[in-house]
Every structure is written in structure tokens, then in C-alpha cells.
Amino acid sequence: MPRSKDLHGSAPDQHPDALLIIDLISDFEFPDGNRLLRNSQPLIDSLLRLKTRAHAAHVPVIYVNDNRGRWRSDRSHFVAHCMNSKSKGRELAAALCPEERDYFVFKPKHSAFFATPLDALLKHLGTQRLILTGVTVEQCILMTAVEAYLRDLDIMVPRDCVAGLRQRAASERYIESILHGTLASSQQVRFTRR
Fold it and tell me: Is the model's pLDDT at 4 over the cut of 60?
């Protein structure tokens, strides 16, 4: 049950699980962007199947993204920019495009929690377990997992739904051994029954 009921309909979903999709809507215009894009493309099918299952189970899907360039909290403009024909990430953005029912949070730094409304949103959703997907496993996924751990949230990372550039094995070991997270395949994710 959510800790608070004062969002007045802004977050109508309630579920003990939440699926986070981190930094996959991107133009990949940054150092190592081409390499990260190549490493991210194999995630598409697994992540789409997981997202479809999450929707069917009424699990909230929350996109968390860096807002590159001038700061604007404009989801539509940002997604359109990433799907533009000149964007390197257009195919990935088109495949994983957020739906109207999905939540979307902009972040200024690595962690999905730092200077964002994510913590308040998760409390209102009644979230107890975060399923972390996206990029990069050694930075944004790991930093988000650390902050989730500090908030006493359970952590699950489907290995076939995360990508990175370096230190993947070490990052996954840290999440599993230090943060007590569960690493598995996306097919092994079982959503909590409400």
C-alpha cells in the first residue's frame, strides 16, 4: 500500500514492483555513444517482451533519462528529438518509445534518484522492488541500485536488459554481493502478485 495518498490522481498505479528503463531514449551524441549504441541494440527484444509483461501485470513502467543540452522537462520534445532522422539512436528510440501510460522522469546525473521526483513517485506507487534495465550498468544502473538499496528497496537486474561499456562483470558482482540484488534473465522475472 502506498505510504501516502496525496498525489490526487497524478500516479494512479499501485504495485509493489516498478520497471525502470534508464537512458535508452537517447541520440547517443556523446563520447563512446556509437559503442554504447551497438551494445544496447541487442537489448531491444528482451526489454520489449519484459515491458509487455509488465503492462499486462499492471506494473508501472518508468523511463528515466538524461536531458542532454538545454534543460527542459519536455518528454514529447525529447522523444521526438531522439527519433529524428538525424539521431543515431532513432531506431532504439522508435522500438522502445514510451507509451502514454508510462511514466517519464528526467535526471541531471547518473542516479535515477538524484534531484528527481522518483523517490516520491515510488512511494505513491507502493514500490518495494525495482527492476532496473537500460544503460550503463557500470554507471547509471549501478548508481541507481545503490540509492535504491539505501531506500530499502529490493533490486533486480535482468542481465539481458542492461548494457555498458566497461566493468560490467564487476558492477553486476557489486549489485549482487554488496547490494543484495538479484541478477537473472528477463524471462526469470516474476512480477509480484497484488
Answer: no
